[in-house]
Amino acid sequence: xxxxxxxxxxxxxxxxxxxxxxxxxxxxxxxxxxxxxxxxxxxxxxxxxxxxxxxxxxxxxxxxxxxxxxxxxxxxxxxxxxxxxxxxxxxxxxxxxxxxxxxxxxxxxxxxxxxxxxxxxxxxxxxxxxxxxxxxxxxxxxxxxxxxxxxxxxxxxxxxxxxxxxxxxxxxxxxxxxxxxxxxxxxxxxxxxxxxxxxxxxxxxxxxxxxxxxxxxxxxx
Length: 221
Known about the structure:
With 221 residues, the chain is α+β, with helices and mostly antiparallel strands. The chain is 46% helix and 19% strand. It has one domain (26-190). The protein has helices spanning 2-25, 95-109, 115-126, 128-132, 134-139, 141-154, 196-220; strands at residues 28-37, 41-42, 45-46, 50-54, 60-64, 76-83, 163-168, 182-185. A six-stranded antiparallel beta barrel has the order 1-4-5-8-7-6. Strand 4 and strand 5 form a beta hairpin. Helix 1 (2-25) packs antiparallel against helix 7, helix 2 packs across helix 6 and helix 3 (115-126) packs across helix 6. The longest helix is centred in the last third of the chain and has 25 residues, at 196-220.
């Protein structure tokens, strides 16, 4: 009986730690550096993939949803990593547009939508300048937007849970340009190391909680 209670106590503490750790990293701030672009060029601009080093890690490919801003290779900035449907993106609560962008990106990844056309379709969801470009008008990107906006309105929320946004933090860019926002699918994000003060506070709280639970179990013995 004592061993069983000890096991339950350990699982309880582990569950609390997991919930707290998840909450701490749900909206992470990361350091981004544009390492390279994939070589796809349409309408005079580069399209997916944009290869980024996140927190100094190996490059991962992201897709851009911001047509009107410019970045340069080697440029760095900080970004908030938020859920696609959080409402905290660069374009606010344009939830339907973000959902359509995620579906288009997924179709780019599985090869059912052309990379260049698909990226312009994503840009067109958020930019009238993109819609006015000759490539957008000649490539059929507008028709893709109409199709995917209709799908986005009826798709279950679970479809979008593996998509996140890298939202630029204003004033942190290393160059003069304005950094763009990027979309990632099921990214592996290096978790930031908690500050020592935060860890001490968390540890103190866990020790106090452990003492309370232990006393409770002891009274019930």
